[in-house]
Amino acid sequence: MFTQSAKYYDALYRALGKDYAAESARIKEIVAEHKRTAGNALLDVACGTGKHIERLRDDFACEGVDIDRNLLAVAAERNPGVPMDLADMISFNLGKRYDAIVCLFGSIGYAPNTMRLDQTLSTFAKHLNPGGVVLLEPWFTPDQWRDGQVNALYVDEPNLKIARMNVSRRDGNVAVLHFHYMVASTDGIRTFTEPHRLTLFTREEYESAFRKARLSVSFDERGLIGRGLFIGTQPIL
Question: Structure pTM?
Answer without folding.
Answer: 0.96
